[in-house]
C-alpha cells in the first residue's frame, strides 16, 4: 500500500497519535484501515510537497516547484476539500507562471475558509508579478519593513513585476534586498545579473553569474548566461570551458553546440568550428546563427560563392540580423557586385538607426516608466525589425500603463493580422476606435 516506508515510519514517529489510530484500524480491519491508509498517503505527499517547496526557496530551481505542484495534485486527489492544499497549489502555480491554475486554486482555498489575510496577500503578489507592481508596492514594501514571514516571496514577486515592466531601478533595489536576506539565492542572482546587463554593468553581472555557477554547478541557465557574457567580453577560453560543460550536460541543445562553435571560431580554430557547425546544421538546418557563422567562415576563407549560399539561407530564416547583412555585403563586394551590395548596406544603416533609437527609448522608459508612449514606440520598432514576440511584449506593457492607448492597440492589431490571428486583431482594432466623449 505504501510506496515510501521510510517516510511513513518517520511520520509515525513524529505523530504518535497517528500510530495509535493505525493500530486500532489494523485491529478493527475493514474500512477503518483503508481510510487511515488514505490519510497516511496524503501525509506522505504533503511532506514531499513541503520538502520540494523548501528546496525551491533555497535553490530556486524550477524543477523543485514542478515537483511540489505534482505532489500537491496527489494531495488534492485524496483531499479535494483541503483549503491548505489548494492555497499551496495556488502559490506554487503563481510562481510557475500558471495564472489560470493559480486563480482557480486560490478561489477554492478562499471558499474553503483559508486565512483571509493569506488569500489577500497572494492575490496582491499575483498582481505585482504579472506586471502591475506600482499599484501594490506600497502595501508590499510595508510588509517587508514589518519583517513579514513571506518577505522573500514578496521581494521575488516585486522583482518579477519590475523586470516585466522594465523598471530597472525598482528591480535592482528589490533584488539587492532579497540577496541581503538570502545571499545564496540563485534565482535572485540570475535576475540581478540580467538587470545589471540591461544597465550595462557587465562586470557586476559576470560576478553574479559566476556566483550562481559556484553555488549550483548544475544550474544550466546560470552557466549559459555566464558563457555568453564571457564570450561577448572576449574571455573566450573561460567561455569555452562553460559551453563545454553545458554541452556535456545537454548534448542535444543546439545553443550549447553553437556556443562551442563560436568559441572555436573566435580562437581561430576554423576546422573545429566548421565541424561543430556542420554537426549542428545536420540536425537543425534552419538555425540562422549557425548558418551565418558558417557563411562568415567561408567568406574568410575566400570561398565567396559558398559563403553567399550560407548567408542567404541565414537571412531567409532571420532577415534583420545586422552581422549577417554585413557579411553578405562584404561577400557581394568581393564578387564585384557593388549595386547588390549597396542594398544590404542600406538595410544595415536603417537597422543602426533603429538601434540608436531603441537605446534612447530605453532611457526614456527608465526615466518615465509609466509613460505608454516610449513603450509603444519600442514595440513598433521591434516589430518593424521582425522581433514579433518582443515587440508585442513592449506594446502590451504600454497597455498596462494606459489600457486605452490607441497607437499600441493599432500596432498589436497589425501584428496579429500578419500572423493570421484575426480574432485578436479584431479585439485590438475595436479598442483602437476613438472613445465617445
What can you tell me about this protein's structure?
This protein is an all-alpha fold and 437 residues long. Helices cover 79% and strands 0% of the residues. It contains 24 helices and no strands. It has helices spanning 5-14, 16-28, 31-59, 62-78, 83-95, 99-111, 116-129, 137-145, 151-164, 168-181, 186-198, 202-215, 220-232, 236-249, 254-266, 270-283, 288-300, 304-317, 322-334, 338-367, 372-384, 388-401, 406-418, 422-431. Helix 11 runs antiparallel to helix 12 and helix 15 (254-266) packs antiparallel against helix 16 (270-283). It starts with a helix and ends in a 6-residue tail after the last helix.
Main sheet attributes: strand count, strand direction, barrel closure:
none
Following the backbone from N to C, one meets helices and strands in this order, namely HHHHHHHHHHHHHHHHHHHHHHHH
Count all strands and give the number. 0
Distance between the termini: 69 Å
Coarse shape: globular
Amino acid at each position: 500500500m505504501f510506496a515510501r516506508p521510510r517516510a511513513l515510519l518517520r511520520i509515525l514517529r513524529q505523530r504518535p497519535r497517528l500510530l495509535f489510530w493505525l493500530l486500532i484500524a489494523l485491529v478493527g480491519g475493514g474500512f477503518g484501515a483503508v481510510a487511515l491508509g488514505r490519510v497516511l498517503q496524503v501525509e506522505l505527499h504533503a511532506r514531499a510537497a513541503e520538502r520540494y517547496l523548501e528546496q525551491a526557496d533555497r535553490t530556486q530551481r524550477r524543477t523543485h516547484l514542478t515537483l511540489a505542484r505534482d505532489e500537491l495534485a496527489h494531495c488534492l486527489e485524496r483531499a479535494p476539500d483541503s483549503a491548505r492544499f489548494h492555497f499551496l497549489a495556488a502559490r506554487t502555480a503563481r510562481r510557475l507562471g500558471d495564472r489560470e491554475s493559480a486563480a482557480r486554486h486560490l478561489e477554492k482555498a478562499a471558499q474553503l475558509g483559508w486565512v483571509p489575510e493569506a488569500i489577500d496577500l497572494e492575490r496582491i503578489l499575483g498582481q505585482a508579478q504579472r506586471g502591475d507592481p506600482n499599484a501594490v508596492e506600497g502595501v508590499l514594501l510595508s510588509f517587508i519593513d514589518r519583517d513579514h514571514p513571506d518577505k522573500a516571496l514578496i521581494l521575488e514577486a516585486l522583482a518579477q513585476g519590475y523586470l516585466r515592466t522594465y523598471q530597472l531601478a525598482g528591480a535592482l533595489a528589490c533584488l539587492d534586498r532579497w540577496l541581503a536576506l538570502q545571499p545564496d539565492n540563485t534565482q535572485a542572482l540570475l535576475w540581478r545579473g540580467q538587470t545589471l546587463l540591461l544597465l550595462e554593468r557587465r562586470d557586476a553581472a559576470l560576478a553574479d553569474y559566476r556566483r550562481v555557477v559556484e553555488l549550483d554547478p548544475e544550474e544550466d541557465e546560470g552557466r549559459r548566461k555566464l558563457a555568453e557574457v564571457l564570450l561577448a567580453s572576449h574571455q573566450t577560453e573561460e567561455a569555452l570551458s562553460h559551453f563545454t560543460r553545458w554541452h556535456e550536460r545537454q548534448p542535444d541543445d543546439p545553443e550549447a553546440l553553437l556556443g562551442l562553435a563560436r568559441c572555436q571560431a573566435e580562437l581561430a580554430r576554423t576546422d573545429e568550428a566548421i565541424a561543430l557547425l556542420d554537426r549542428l546544421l545536420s540536425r537543425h538546418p534552419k538555425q540562422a546563427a549557425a548558418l551565418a557563422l558558417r557563411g562568415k567562415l567561408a567568406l574568410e576563407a575566400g570561398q565567396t560563392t559558398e559563403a553567399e549560399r550560407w548567408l542567404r539561407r541565414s537571412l531567409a530564416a532571420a532577415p534583420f540580423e545586422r552581422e549577417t547583412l554585413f557579411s553578405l555585403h562584404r561577400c557581394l563586394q568581393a564578387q564585384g557586385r557593388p549595386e547588390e551590395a549597396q542594398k544590404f548596406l542600406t538595410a544595415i544603416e536603417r537597422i543602426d538607426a533603429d538601434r540608436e533609437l531603441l537605446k534612447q527609448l530605453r532611457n526614456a522608459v527608465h526615466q518615465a516608466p509609466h509613460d505608454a508612449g516610449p513603450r509603444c514606440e519600442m514595440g513598433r520598432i521591434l516589430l518593424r525589425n521582425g522581433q514579433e514576440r518582443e515587440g508585442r511584449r513592449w506594446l502590451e506593457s504600454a497597455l498596462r500603463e494606459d489600457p486605452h492607448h490607441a497607437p499600441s492597440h493599432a500596432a498589436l492589431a497589425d501584428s496579429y493580422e500578419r500572423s493570421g490571428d484575426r480574432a485578436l486583431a479584431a479585439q485590438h482594432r475595436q479598442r483602437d476606435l476613438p472613445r465617445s466623449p
